[in-house]
Write a structure and sequence with these properties.
By secondary structure, the chain is α+β, with helices and mostly antiparallel strands.
């Protein structure tokens, strides 16, 4: 019986190897050698290194060899000995105790490899992780930037563009990742999703389900890139359609939107970095390309031909042209005529008003909160596999999907031993694991603290995003290696409505600030702003992490404390940090201080039950003495009155005892 069982196991494992690598004899031999030992073997490590570097070997085998080598690395005894020195020298890695910790994130996978006692399920788990290049810590030492870029490009369509804008700071950071990006961007190529572009999570290049973006999750990297607006997966990569009552460039991004996002996002990121001396929890534009041509159904064509010629565009041409005309008419001043006549003139006018652009963003995440909530719900596996990927799935695939999600939101993850029952049962048991429960609670509080750091920094400039940067569909989570450990970070994305005052004198208006703050506050806290955005970001985080009332209270306290400290530190930096001062016009800084005084008077008067006219007369007199015009004074006082409830919520920020930033009081945290 035991012998027959062993034969069956060998047959199952053989089937797994053939499914993964085909009839590759080298793969069969290496997997057999790998499963033939339960300890580190010098000869096996040598063989794995050689195959991982061999460009004649299949990509699938090479990345599996990287994970097998990591398994061998973890089995080295003693750690830090001569054999580890030799192994690191062969790999090209520095001898560093943190390398073992970083690789050890996948202990849940490596513990299942038990030599000849390895089960098919455990080996299936191992192969599943090997397909996710971003999780292979040692992959950058074996998978070169040129071949990675080539593999990414093989899954995409391309066309011609022109560089429109670049962020030199980002270009100087992340050498391996930017080297891959530089190769992809050579000759100013722009990229479009194709029918063979993967949609599975954690793919090297991925079209996240339900989006028109591409994400790049590069080998061994915890930083994701997004190519924003990569077209529609059809013969029409770009179209002009009606969406929510407005006409827009469907599948692409207009120049106005991408330019604003690039400049505003970089400005806030740089301000945050200078104030806090730490990376900001924001996506940041690296490069923006103007699109010159598109991959139409008959091949690459110029944008003018694509939108003007019926035969080039193909089916749907008439509807597209009608929508284009309506768009142009809607954007022209009343009664104005087209500057250029005829069919080509309409195309030129449309492209002048909505020039198509494609942006590269760094520090993004495809694990956005609304997606995570849906995938971790009882119907999550069905949503991903059946509706998203349009295929059937096994119980093991559903379990691995849950493990991938939970590892991302927890940083380090311990799967439950009991794998029976439904997808929902398995996810519930995973959350209930003591180690996972502790991490989930701690991470939830940390994410709210990170949000408070950013929100307080933005509020100190009296900037806002009109909800766009804080709505849950534009907020995501990513596990990253920082300061010698895996930690979970929140990332705020899509900054095309972001406004960060202070670039020039007069660049401050409390009415605009309060209107934007109302949306930002609402999308963070409220359950409903609009029917299609019925859940706030913080409430979604509660459901993703399944936290109880005491942890929710800790999170709220952490947000308030971080927001207040960040606000005061940023305000102090505007006066005393030379790097921050150069980003803020003195006129704006002085007006912010005057506006804070108005808000504090307003809040205190209402709390004391005083008549509005009492505090208003004092504020009016002070502003007159400061040289403000009567019209400006009326506008400020009216704005404070109309937003009284909102300002009261953030009243601790405006307490004068924390905003006296004379050099004798050097505590920006209050």
């Amino acid at each position: 019986m035991l012998a027959s069982k062993g034969v069956l196991l060998q047959e199952e494992i053989g089937n797994l190897v053939r499914t993964e690598f085909g009839q590759d004899p080298l793969a069969v031999q290496l997997v057999a050698d790998f499963l033939g030992v339960r300890a580190y073997r010098h000869e096996l490590a040598q063989s794995l290194i050689g195959t991982a570097r061999n460009r004649d070997a299949s990509w699938e085998l090479r990345r599996a060899c990287v994970l097998m080598l990591e398994n061998q690395f973890l089995r080295l005894r003693p750690a830090g000995g001569e054999e580890e020195l030799w192994l690191c020298s062969q790999i090209g890695a520095q001898v560093d105790s943190s390398l073992r910790v970083r690789i050890g994130r996948l202990l849940r996978i490596h513990r299942g490899i038990r030599g000849r006692q390895t089960t098919p399920a455990a080996l299936g788990d191992f192969f599943h992780v090997a397909r996710q290049e971003c999780k292979l810590t040692l992959a950058p030492y074996f998978l070169g930037a040129e071949e990675v870029a080539s593999r990414i490009a093989s899954h995409l369509r391309t066309s011609q563009g022109l560089i429109h804008w670049t962020n030199e700071y980002e270009a100087a950071d992340l050498p391996y990742e930017r080297s891959i990006a530089a190769r992809l961007q050579s000759e100013s190529r722009v990229y479009w999703s194709a029918c063979n572009t993967p949609r599975q999570i954690n793919s090297l290049v991925e079209v996240p389900i339900g989006t028109v973006a591409l994400t790049l999750k590069l080998p061994g990297s915890d930083v994701e890139f997004e190519i924003k607006r990569s077209g529609i997966r059809s013969r029409h990569p770009l179209d002009v359609r009606v969406f929510e009552g407005t006409y827009r460039l469907y599948g692409g991004s207009s120049g106005v939107s991408s330019d604003r996002e690039a400049r505003s996002g970089v400005r806030l990121a740089e301000l945050y970095r200078r104030v806090h001396d730490t990376p900001p929890p924001l996506s940041s534009s690296c490069d923006v390309f103007s699109i010159q041509s598109v991959p139409a159904w008959q091949g690459e064509v110029h944008m003018l031909d694509y939108f003007t010629d019926r035969r080039t565009f193909g089916n749907g041409f008439g509807e597209m042209r009608g929508n284009m005309q309506a768009t142009v008419r809607g954007l022209l001043p009343d009664g104005a005529a087209l500057e250029a006549p005829g069919d080509l003139g309409l195309t030129v006018e449309f492209l002048r008003m909505m020039p198509p652009r494609q942006a590269w963003l760094a520090n993004t995440t495809s694990f956005r909160l609304d997606v995570l909530e849906r995938y971790l719900s009882p119907a999550g596996a069905e949503s991903y596999f059946a509706r998203g990927l349009a295929r059937d799935y096994t119980a093991d695939e559903a379990r691995r999907f849950a493990d991938d999600l939970l590892e991302e939101i927890l940083g380090v993850y311990t799967p439950p031993a009991d794998t029976t029952g439904s997808y929902s049962d398995y996810v519930a048991r995973a959350y209930a694991e003591p180690a996972n429960r502790k991490r989930a609670d701690r991470t939830y509080v940390s994410l709210l603290r990170q949000t408070g750091d950013l929100f307080g920094t933005l509020l100190a400039t009296w900037g806002c995003s009109f909800g766009e940067s804080f709505v849950r569909r534009n907020v995501g989570i990513r596990s990253q290696w920082r300061n010698g450990e895996w930690a979970v970070h929140i990332i705020f994305m899509d900054h095309d409505a972001l406004w960060v005052p202070g670039e020039a004198a007069g660049d401050f208006d409390p009415k605009i600030s309060l209107e934007g703050l109302r949306f930002d506050n609402g999308y963070l806290f409220a359950q409903e702003i609009k029917p299609e955005q019925a859940r706030g970001t913080f409430r979604t985080l509660m459901r993703v992490y399944r936290v109880d009332a005491p942890v929710i209270a800790k999170g709220e306290a952490a947000f308030r404390e971080a927001c207040e400290k960040a606000y005061r530190k940023t305000r102090w930096s505007m006066l005393h940090n030379p790097q921050v001062r150069e980003m803020m016009d003195p006129d704006v800084v002085h007006k912010i201080a005057d506006w804070e005084a108005v808000v504090w008077d307003s809040v205190n008067a209402r709390r004391a039950g005083a008549e509005d006219s009492g505090w208003e007369s004092g504020a009016r007199s002070r502003m007159q003495n400061r040289g403000y015009a009567s019209e400006t004074i009326d506008e400020w006082l009216s704005a404070a009155n109309q937003s009284a409830a909102l300002l009261d919520r953030y009243s601790p920020l405006f307490d004068p005892k924390y905003l006296d930033f004379s050099r004798s009081k050097r505590q920006p945290g209050g």
